[in-house]
Design goal:
Blueprint: H1 13-18, H2 39-48, H3 51-55, H4 58-71, E1 77-78, H5 85-92, E2 94-97, E3 101-104, H6 111-116, H7 126-138, E4 140-141, E5 144-145, E6 149-154, H8 156-165, H9 173-181, H10 183-207, E7 211-216, H11 226-243, E8 253-257, H12 264-267, E9 274-276, H13 283-291, E10 298-303, H14 312-327, E11 340-344, H15 354-371
Parallel strand pairs: 1-6, 6-7, 7-8, 8-9, 9-10, 10-11
Antiparallel strand pairs: 2-3, 4-5
Helix pairs in contact: 2-4, 4-7, 7-10, 8-10, 9-10, 10-11, 13-14, 14-15
Length: about 375
């Protein structure tokens, strides 16, 4: 396991915000910050020949992970990979079709397929762990690491959605049918996914990841009650396992459920250090709601990614407005801007003009510094 001492990191403000410690400004990173909107990413992907060729080559993955850090003044790096690596390592046969997204050649479309499912073979995911090691090495500068590295996984529920459908979907009809008609099969998939995701994140941390994020992209399509049972509880099991090991207990864990703002009080019981927010809930309400639980849980978010298609002045105005909203929150024992990591409410859009990201980052840093009186 690579040593994760904060004093060996040039800029550790992201980790301090995740721990709800006092900071002099708000840290910022962006979901999908390494991606198709960057011309340098497109060039590397062309060299790799395909998305999977890029994701499964540790050197290319390290290269694209660092590209946004070389272009922008960001406060964290995030491993370049894909959430569907786990079901691929279960033998479901992942491929990416241009214009159609991910597809599995062996989806869980029968009872026997579910009964045959086994925990992902972590040996088939060595390319991910090797990428983490390469990224940590590449982040070193003058004997220190530039910024922390975030590892990640899809949530058990979100992985199950793709595993059952065999691809993306507007309504995940087959997944919902299994949930309602055969919850025993759904629970088997989720139990296997919990074990797989837990192992996967632990091995990422062993390789050098200094925070772990669980992307629950499709939890928000569940009804209340089903969300807690089929999405949140599996994530909580993973967090409990990670935090129960002394090797990992200090590693911040972030959970992000797209469309999950209405469930913040129950999400507070997940054990997560940070809860990600999309643009459907304002930061002030989220902060005050979590504060009422009596737990010091950091928040991350929450601007609409498509704001980056607006002109720079509008980006600056709305980003500043978002931070002002949070600064107005009534919370106990801390400045309301502490314990906040600025991010988009979902991944950056591929049509984003790269220069607009500079405007967003500058607005975050300027507004959050001024509002702290620094």
């Amino acid at each position: 396991m690579i040593e994760n001492k904060d004093n060996m990191i040039e800029n550790d403000i992201f980790l301090r915000a995740c721990r709800y410690e006092e900071t002099d400004r708000t840290p910022v990173w962006l979901m999908r910050q390494a991606g198709r909107y960057l011309p340098e990413y497109q060039a590397t992907r062309a060299k790799a020949g395909s998305f999977l060729g890029l994701a499964k080559n540790p050197s290319y993955a390290a290269e694209v992970t660092l590209q946004p850090l070389d272009r922008y003044d960001l406060d964290a790096a995030i491993l370049f990979s894909d959430i569907l690596t786990i079901p691929d390592a279960m033998g479901l046969g992942l491929s990416f079709v241009n214009g159609e997204g991910p597809q599995f050649s062996n989806p869980l479309n029968s009872e026997q397929a579910v009964l045959n499912l086994q925990v992902a073979d972590m040996g088939q995911l060595d390319y991910v762990f090797n990428a983490v090691k390469e990224i940590r090495t590449a982040l070193m500068r003058n004997g220190k690491q530039r910024v922390p590295l975030i590892g990640f996984s899809g949530s058990p529920w979100t992985l199950a959605c793709y595993m059952i459908e065999g691809s993306g979907s507007k309504d995940f009809l087959n997944t919902k049918k299994m949930l309602y008609n055969r919850p025993d099969l759904m629970n088997r998939i989720l139990d296997i996914n919990v074990e797989s995701v837990a192992q996967y994140l632990e091995l990422q941390i062993d390789a050098g990841a200094q925070a772990a994020m669980i992307f629950d992209t499709w939890g928000g399509m569940l009804s209340s009650g089903d969300y807690q049972k089929f999405s949140l509880d599996p994530m909580a099991k993973i967090i409990k396992r990670i935090k129960s090991n002394k090797k990992y207990e200090s590693v911040p864990v972030i959970i992000f459920t797209k469309g999950g703002g209405g469930w913040l009080p129950t999400m507070a019981n997940s054990g997560a250090d940070v809860i990600g927010l999309d643009w459907t809930i304002e930061l002030k309400l989220a902060r005050e709601t979590l504060d009422q639980t009596g737990k010091k849980i950091a928040i991350q978010g929450n601007v609409d990614p498509l704001l980056l298609l607006a002109n720079p002045k509008e980006i600056e105005r709305r980003v500043t407005e978002s931070i002002l909203n949070l600064a107005d929150a009534k919370v106990s024992g801390s400045h309301p801007l502490n314990g906040h990591v600025f991010n988009l409410g979902h991944g950056i859009n591929q049509l984003t003009p790269p220069e607009h990201v500079h405007s967003l980052i500058a607005a975050v840093k300027n507004a959050s510094t001024k509002l702290r009186g620094k």
